[in-house]
Write a structure and sequence with these properties.
2 domains, alpha+beta, globular, six-stranded mixed sheet, OB fold (Dihydrolipoamide Acetyltransferase, E2P), six-stranded antiparallel sheet
Length: 385
């Protein structure tokens, strides 16, 4: 078991408060990604968990065992926390073979030769590099070296595996391959993994949970799908997703049962069940909102289809990208993005008609920036061209 609970963690460097009342629970077997831009506190949080940093306030427990109690100046030694850390740099001994790099830590633990051999070879096979056991690091590619670093970390069967941007030194193709291997590793071993990255693709494709950091605070903790579908506020919505979300200004009126929204992209009506009623909304008077519309929920037709759910728009620019086409559109003086699967051909200034799935639209209160209407994750229907 390896459930980690951080409560009210504060970390200062001089006068600079880099972690601000961090509260986070990581369940046993989670693949928890700490996501955010540079300087947001995600790596510092990982270093607090690992024991490389001591917070000034707060507590941390692993399976109910106190690891940090800052009020009583208690910080359990990192060597007793049963965790391993993989850095951005591979940190391999250049004069040792792959086998020797992995076995080094196991020898310090005074395991038998047979047990060391079993663990080393098991970890190498798990990372699919057992054929390289007699090579030196300089004889390996960057991706292979990173696999050795991870194999070394899992050889001791730690309760916790901490990964600090381990793929950032790899090229795009190797990053994709390593994401696959890390996901398989998590599934096969069941080890609790805490992963730090600024790359939202890594977070969305591998994690069971994502903690989004912002300026030393946690903005939202959710599954990747929930984080993408229902970001807690406008800043989170704008950070998560590529191409970026459309945030379209509008006005809303809430009558106690229905939220009616007017915008340049048409009118929408949302019933009470889809609203986040914990967020205050004025009743009976209009207030400013922003519609959060993901590019992929917008359908485009080159000829006007039947029905009243289509609005006229104009193509501002089209960006073919192989398997998809990103289209910048304008309607009623508002510019927005649409994502179309497959290669599509659009001319600049071409007249088209667009339709937006209302079930997949977020609504944010412009004044508080907070989410007030949940979107649903539905399969998009194809538009009639």
């Amino acid at each position: 078991m390896s459930k980690i609970v951080l409560e009210h963690i504060d970390k200062y460097y001089g006068e600079n408060r880099v972690l601000k009342d961090i509260n986070l629970t990581i369940e046993d077997g989670d693949f928890m990604t700490l996501l955010g831009p540079s300087g947001c506190g995600k790596t510092t949080t990982l270093r607090v968990i690992s024991g490389l940093e001591k917070p000034q306030n707060g507590t941390m427990t692993i399976d109910g065992r106190t690891i940090i109690d800052a009020a009583n100046a208690f910080y359990e030694d990192p060597s007793k926390r049963d965790l391993n850390l993989v850095f951005q740099s591979y940190a391999l001994w250049p004069h040792m073979t792959v086998y020797q790099n992995i076995s080094f830590g196991l020898k310090i633990k005074k395991l038998s030769a047979a047990e060391i051999d079993r663990r080393v070879m098991d970890s190498l096979r798990t990372m699919r590099i057992d054929q390289y056991k007699d090579r030196y690091p300089n004889e390996l590619s960057g991706g292979q070296q990173q696999r050795v670093a991870i194999a070394r970390a899992i050889a001791s069967s730690p309760k916790l595996l901490l990964l600090d941007e381990p793929l950032s030194n790899l090229d795009a193709r190797l990053r994709i391959d390593m994401r696959v291997e890390l996901k398989r590793l998590h599934r096969e071993t069941g080890t609790t993994i805490i992963y730090v990255t600024h790359d939202q693709v890594e977070a969305m494709t591998m994690s069971t949970k994502v903690a989004l950091f912002r300026a030393g605070e946690i903005a939202q903790v959710a599954t990747p799908l929930e984080l993408y579908t229902n970001p807690i506020d406008m800043e989170t919505a704008d950070f998560v997703g590529s191409p970026r979300i459309n945030l379209v200004d509008g006005t809303a009126l809430y009558d106690g049962t229905t939220l009616k929204v007017k915008s340049p992209l048409g009118g929408f009506s949302f019933d009470k069940d889809s609203l986040k009623l914990a967020e205050k909304m004025p009743e009976g008077t209009e207030f400013p909102v922003a519609l959060g519309i993901r590019p992929e929920v917008i359908q485009i037709a080159t000829r006007r289809p039947a029905g009243d759910r289509w609005i006229e728009a104009e193509v501002y620019a089209s960006q073919p990208a192989g398997s998809e086409t990103i289209v910048t559109l304008e309607a009623q003086g508002t510019q927005f993005l649409a994502l179309q699967v497959d290669l599509r051909s659009y001319e600049m200034n071409q007249k088209v008609w667009v339709s937006i799935d209302p079930q997949r639209v977020n609504v944010f209160n412009r004044e508080t920036q907070r989410l007030i209407r949940y979107a649903e994750e539905n399969r998009r229907e194809e538009a009639d061209a």
